[in-house]
Amino acid sequence: MRTAVRAVNGLTSRWAGAAGAEGGTAFSAAGVWPLLAFLADGADGPARAELAAALGVPAGEAAGLARELSDGLAGVAGLDSALGLWTARTLRLREEWASRLPSGTRGVLGGDPVADRAALDAWAREHTGGRIEEMPVSLDESTLLVLASALALRTRWAEPFHETILESAVWGDREYLGLRRDTADLDRLSVSRTPFGSVTEVRVLGEDGLDVHLLLGETEMTPTQILRAGVELLSGGHLSVPGSRLPLGEAGPGVRVVEVPCTRPSAPELSLATAAFELTARHDLLKQAELFGLGAARDTSYGHFPGVSDSPLAVSSAEQSVVARFHARGFEAEVVTLVAAAAGGLPEYRWTTKVVEARFDRPFGFLAVHRETGLVLVSGWVGRPVEWREQSVAAPSNIDLPSASGATPHI
């Protein structure tokens, strides 16, 4: 999947530049990319060229890579994925194109927008465990084809957090739900030099190969710069200093290295304080049509997908809905995308130990990453965390919440 992973992560980086993340958002290029790939496979003319540019791979290779990516994701623990294709009864597909889609994806649009909408919404709920209740798509009698993808990821932390109150001058006078954890592995934290400034990255490991990378940049850096730097770090794009090699003092954004007195020889530790967050987002991909290679494909004056059907087709809708939650015991995200987330006495201090303290107490970015391949599944920016509530629940009632789905564009 190496080529597809590079291509998807490339789209993640470019989308970060256009996502308007300052107020908090989440998005999934992994939910969009396969849909664009299958569209490119059946496109011609300017639409084919634009889709290939957005994908970062030749249009003739796109469907094969999308299928390879789909097959690879099917074997990832903690991740559920699905692809759906619905067509009007009157639309005849080219079997050569349809055969390249994963099996079990076909459905029918009956022509009644209300009934069709109900069926698509049921599909979205099924593949997101009910977290996304409706397909982000506009349907009417003219809709001939809907291509959709769903991703749902969930993981428990290998080492859970403790809930605490987080106070932050940046986030104002309110109290927020903070998460704190100490671990002996200093190198889960690193500080990197990037062209935009320094970035602190902390990898929070899940039990099943799905991790979340928290990203904190210098205060003058933009969300775009921080998220792009985080994607580049996945491929070793910048020089990084691991936590075990950081010098004493202020060592990076949100990072301070100190020596702490202790009563007996103790291993160094990484002390992480961060914020719990819950994000929901909906994106109209056609508002950034050029980013996704859908500019020409929107033109309804002629067809753009002769490889899909003899009937002329143009993209009429392309949207994504995302839900993401980072809490004391784990992380869940669902995506749907269319082309239509106590001492006693006085101790004797004879030793010191190194403690790397990291505080994510101002806006920060995150990447949910498949550890083995480095594929970014969901990305986002935390503009404001979850507020503290008395008797805050330390974990969700059901950690096995659904997956995220990605809905594709209607054509």
Q: Which descriptors apply to this entry?
A:
411 residues; alpha+beta; Alpha-1-antitrypsin, domain 1; 2 domains; 7-stranded antiparallel sheet; 7 helices; elongated; disordered C terminus
Question: Could you characterize the architecture of this molecule?
Answer:
This protein has 411 residues and is of the alpha+beta class. The chain is 21% helix and 33% strand. The protein folds into two domains: 2-154 and 278-341, Antithrombin, subunit I, domain 2 (Antithrombin, Chain I, domain 2); 162-276 and 342-382, Alpha-1-antitrypsin, domain 1, CATH 2.30.39.10. The chain is built from seven helices and 20 strands. Helix 1 runs antiparallel to helix 7 (223-234), helix 2 (29-41) runs antiparallel to helix 3 and helix 2 (29-41) crosses helix 4 (59-74).
Gross morphology: elongated
Q: What is the CATH third-level topology name of the largest domain?
A: Antithrombin, Chain I, domain 2
Tally the structural domains.
Answer: 2
Order of helices and strands: HEHHHEHEHEEEEEEHEEEEEEEEEEE
How far apart, in Å, are the first and last alpha carbons?
A: 28 Å
Rg calculated over all Cα atoms: 23 Å
- pLDDT averaged residue by residue: 86
Largest sheet descriptor: 7 strands, antiparallel
Question: What is the level 1 CATH name of the largest domain?
Answer: Alpha Beta
Count of DSSP-assigned helices? 7
Read across the widest sheet, the strand sequence of neighbours is 1-19-18-9-8-7-10
Strand % is 25-35%
- How many β strands by DSSP? 20
Low-confidence stretches: 341-347, 393-411
Which secondary-structure class do the elements indicate?
alpha+beta
Q: Spell out the CATH superfamily of the largest domain.
A: Antithrombin, subunit I, domain 2
